[in-house]
Write a structure and sequence with these properties.
22% strand, nine-stranded mixed beta sheet, binds iron/sulfur cluster, 39% helix, TIM Barrel, 2 domains, alpha/beta
Length: 375
């Protein structure tokens, strides 16, 4: 039986490493290497499409790394070779300080209908504190270019809980982002990861503070964007269809170093594929892509992941989708957890979700779910 799936493509190139970044990317590359890499990615897309009998990628997300470092002509050729059709949402992630009008024109001509810009913060002081690539003026100029390019959807990523943070810093960033006419915003908390230059110089993320979270949430809503996931906001009908596949645990394929994907097979088993975090290994493998590591999730692992991802959504877990995968409603698998935390759950015929107070203690609830599912 053929499948419809999402497609994530990782572009592992960055001009320089940001001090807080623990994602896999390389900073030594040239146009020749990019073209070599894109050719390998095309091969892997067809390899996985064939392996999982995928008839259609209805969402595509080219992320990174820094996709906007791909030369415009290489991007056009690459997308053409992917031979995509029937894509509902096609996102390319860009760094506004390095985006060009030629790159955006190439995206538009190739069917891209959504640009996601990694701003993180407009405050030069905070960009310097976290060592974020790019100067404020270049970021503003890049955002002007994107806003003027007329894509159907435009999203901006910001980071909260920075060192030396304040409600006025994050509120100012949100209002500046909204000023570009975006229909989607992601705001993730800074996480200072061991081994990054930011961690080496002893920086720490700002403490969790409900007043801060509530204040910036209200600012986003006042800009006309509604919260639909713990860290994501959108105008009506502009939620990210691709990211919803992650939260609903629907089929998606991941291509490129460190990219992973999960497919539910014909026996309702979740099969995961993971690529090596190594560009050389990735490029040197044969057309059988022997570096991919496959694993099967046990039934209870898959149920847990569905709770972990689905309860992040404000509307919650889609009951119908869940029953299709596991033949029973979500709460039937966790009666003890539900007994203990029933005041935090909301259940109707369509969805199983958490109240706002429940989402504040999501990790505590997930620990109980993990214990109850015993795997
Ligand atoms: S641009 Fe993004 S992926 Fe690249 S180093 Fe900075 S945070 Fe990491």
């Amino acid at each position: 039986m053929s499948k419809v799936a999402g497609l994530y493509i990782h572009i592992p190139f960055c001009r320089v490493k940001c001090d807080y970044c623990s994602f896999y990317s390389v900073t030594k590359f040239d146009t020749h290497l990019i073209d070599l890499y894109l050719a390998k990615v095309v091969d892997q897309v067809f390899f996985l499409k064939d392996k999982y009998q995928i008839s259609l990628f209805d969402t595509v997300f080219i992320g990174g790394g820094t996709p906007s470092l791909i030369p415009p002509a290489s991007l056009a050729l690459f997308i053409d070779r992917l031979n995509l059709s029937g894509v509902k949402e096609f996102t390319v992630e860009v760094n506004p300080e390095s985006v060009t009008s030629e790159f955006l024109a190439s995206c538009g001509d190739s069917g891209v209908n959504r640009i996601s810009a990694g701003v993180q913060t407009f405050s030069q002081k905070h960009r310097d504190i976290i060592g974020r690539v790019g100067q404020e003026e270049k970021v503003l100029a890049g955002l002007d270019l994107i806003a003027g390019a007329g894509f159907k959807h435009f999203s901006i990523d910001l980071i909260s809980h920075l060192p030396q943070d304040s409600i006025s810093r994050i509120s100012g960033d949100i209002k500046s982002a909204a000023g570009y006419g975006i229909d989607h915003m992601s705001i993730y908390s800074l996480s200072v990861e061991d081994g990054t230059p930011l961690s080496d110089r002893g920086a720490t993320e700002a403490d969790e503070d409900l007043a801060y979270d509530q204040a910036f949430g209200e600012v986003v809503e006042s800009c006309g964007l509604s919260k639909y996931e713990i860290s994501n906001y959108a105008k009506a009908d502009c939620q990210s269809l691709h990211n919803l596949k992650y939260w609903d645990m629907e089929d998606f394929v991941g291509v490129g170093p460190v990219a992973s994907g999960t497919i539910c097979d014909s026996q309702n088993r979740f099969v995961r594929h993971e690529n090596p975090a190594d560009l050389s290994k990735y490029l040197l493998q044969s057309s059988k892509f022997e570096q991919i590591v496959y694993s099967k999730l046990s039934r209870n692992e898959a149920i847990f992941e569905n709770f972990m991802m689905g309860l992040r959504l404000i509307r919650g877990i889609d009951n119908l989708l869940f029953v299709k995968k596991f033949q029973a409603l979500p709460l039937s698998f966790i009666p003890k957890t539900y007994d203990r935390f029933s005041e935090f759950f909301l259940v109707d015929s369509e969805f199983t979700s958490l109240t706002p107070a429940g989402r504040n203690i999501l990790n505590t609830i997930l620990v109980d779910i993990l214990d109850e599912l015993e795997f």
